[in-house]
Amino acid sequence: MKRTKSSATVNRRNFLSNVVVAGAAATVPVAVAEAAEPATGAAAERGSPMPPSAAQRAAEFDRKPEERAHTAQTYFASDFMVDVMKSLDIPFVFSNPGSSFRAIHESIVNYGRNKMPEFITCMHEESSAAMANGYYKASGKTAAIMCHGTVGLQHAAMGLYNAWCDRVPIMTMLGNTLDLTQRESGNAWRHSAQDPVGLVRDFVKWDDQPTTLQGFAESMVHGYKIANTPPMEPVAISMDTELQETEFDRAALRIPKYSPTILPQGEAGALRETARLLVAAERPVIIADRLVRTAAGHAALLQLAELVNAPVIDQGSRQNFPTTHYLCQTTQGRRLIAQADLVIGFEVTDFWGVVNLLGRNGKPATPTVKPGTKLITIGVNDLYMKSNYQDFQRYPAVDLSIAADGEATLPALIEAVRSALSNERKAALAARIEPFRKAHAQAYEESRQAAVFGWDASPVSTSRMCMDLWQAIKNEDWALVSVGASETFVSSWPHRLWNFDKHYQYLGYGAGGGVGYGLPAAVGAALANKALGRFSVNIQCDGDFMYANGALWTAAHHRIPLLTVMHNNRGYGAETMLVQGIANKRNRGIDTPKIGTEINDPAIDYAKLAQGMGVWSAGPITDPAQLASALKRAVEVVKRGEPALVDVVTQTR
Amino acid sequence: MNRIAILSTAILLTIAGQVSAADKGASVTRGRTLFMTSGCYHCHGTQGQGSGSATRLTPKPMPAEGIAQFIRSSGTRMPAYSADVLNDRDVADIAAYLASVLAAKSPDAIPALKDLKPTL
Known about the structure:
The structure holds two protein chains of two kinds.
Chain A: H1 8-23, H2 30-36, H3 41-45, H4 54-61, H5 65-68, H6 77-87, E1 92-95, H7 102-111, E2 118-121, H8 125-139, E3 144-148, H9 151-165, E4 171-176, H10 187-190, E5 206-208, H11 213-227, E6 235-240, H12 241-244, H13 268-280, E7 284-288, H14 295-308, E8 312-314, H15 333-339, E9 342-346, H16 351-355, E10 356-357, E11 366-367, E12 374-379, E13 400-403, H17 406-420, H18 423-430, H19 433-450, H20 462-473, E14 478-482, H21 493-497, H22 518-532, E15 535-541, H23 542-547, H24 551-557, E16 562-568, H25 573-585, H26 606-612, E17 616-621, H27 627-639, E18 643-649
Parallel strand pairs in A: 1-2, 1-3, 3-4, 4-6, 5-6, 7-8, 7-9, 9-12, 12-13, 14-15, 15-16, 16-18, 17-18
Antiparallel strand pairs in A: 10-11
Helix pairs in contact in A: 1-4, 6-7, 6-11, 8-9, 8-22, 13-17, 14-17, 20-27, 22-24
Chain B: H1 3-21, H2 28-37, H3 40-44, H4 64-72, H5 88-100
Helix pairs in contact in B: 1-4, 1-5, 2-5, 4-5
């Protein structure tokens, strides 16, 4: 039951009270004296303008007499909010501080003892969202972010969109002052909105703005459930600022029991038909994209592929299939799809793009598969429910569309395949093994041979950077937690030559294509891996780094071990190529596309930047002969539990 | 100018271009500079080693005539460079630079690549 409620009258009283307090600073208790300190000579010595007046301080800090009277045992709404978060096992809240959620901030660090959730200090709300994204993909646990409902959410929007496109749940908690009579003049108004979530509603799955504390508990639990039900996505809860600060009777409040949704599995009849087609097919191909979340899912996909010896093409949004296995035929994807008589897509966002080639210059699209090839999709795309942002991709016309969670469906599909598989057919399917073994070994050897070109070049080749890195980490329990927007930016060397045989060794990329994902997502993932004893590696593009480099400070501050290797090609590489292409087509200015795409003059010293944020660093390395030793030293730093950065000046790709 | 004259001129220009591309006096240094300033290296790498986005050009590049033809009309994702922006002399110099790139080591001679095998 609510005990007290602030009012405009009380606030005016607080204001007057604080004037008196400030005026009597010399005689008040220590805590208040410290609060008044900036108004003394220290500020003047720094050449500061006028120190804040008592009224300004009162407006900013809004000290209320009754708050000072509270005992440590007094229970506030924001304490209850923390209890709700604890009930959901939300491990971390990624946030920078903000006045509209100051009360829950205080409750997290004092009432909640900064544990479950722990407050992770961020430098930007986009970083908060990206960290929660990376954290989920590494740990499988849903984290929270907190920000202002207006200015904070505007910053967070891009990070949320990346998470939306990546099917990653995030609890987005927004501060917002609903009652206009409670808003101080100025920023309190600018930081309030009638409908704060409206800004991101197109790319959060669900949202609410509860007006009571009991309503908050239900909204949080309900939102958590919705976020973690496939398709998993961010949700947003707006928290009233005044409500957070109100005193309550804990006994009158209830936290609803969280009832996780049983993940939807494919319908039995549809799976039997899929199994029948898979067993009968002569040239089946399995495509996996945002499929594997767990070790069990990783093992299940391998089991399914081995049952029928079907090649797997991993589209790379997750680490779905071991690159070391002969059925990993990702590099042969286009050829295999063209020959296929059955293509099954698991959690493939753009299945149309798998079986069609977009027409250029007014020409119609052409199929990439033979006429008569059977097409099956298994995934949650059919359960997608938004339309403005076009992440749902083009409509794929298929023979069987199974709306279900792909990973949860694998065990039942495996059983259906076992039932459909005769001993004679098993023997026949075994004949596929040797050709796939040869193709796999050949593709690997071709990549090994290709890696040597430009090996001693300066700037450092991406093959040299990636393979020296591999040598440095291969004996650790490693995870490549980020390569920014795309692994193609380093010519996909890791997946061509590293041994990815565990589900956590790669977490995909910034799914929305929003720049600024790489570093904070890596920090979030590394935070998860710290607890799991894994060694986190981040290949960091320079352009992406400059969007959110404050995440390095977060890694240093929270002692998050993470090895960041800068792919410092001193430019926005992809865009350089695109503008060059247009300039050539138009027959003009072929030496000018670097304008606006180059990050040079001055070249950024990322090692110094890292040092400035308390991160061990080496570089810039332009001589490839110096790279291996720098990486070795960096690995030792990370193994001590700290972040490290090695700045490598690289070829474009 | 009649059509025959135009055709003859075109043939002569084409031959001249091919001769130029194969010119022994082509400048490796100038070719390298052009390779870096004309956008080639972004996709092909500073030594023409190729990337995930573009074909490897070196070592042992195709003959200069072939390079010239490819630059003028690649038929691939690479947009063509016309003679207005990269003349035949430029193309010949670029071809000379690519021809100057030395052969790469064997992967077996590089510790980071030697004995590298997927653990099947």
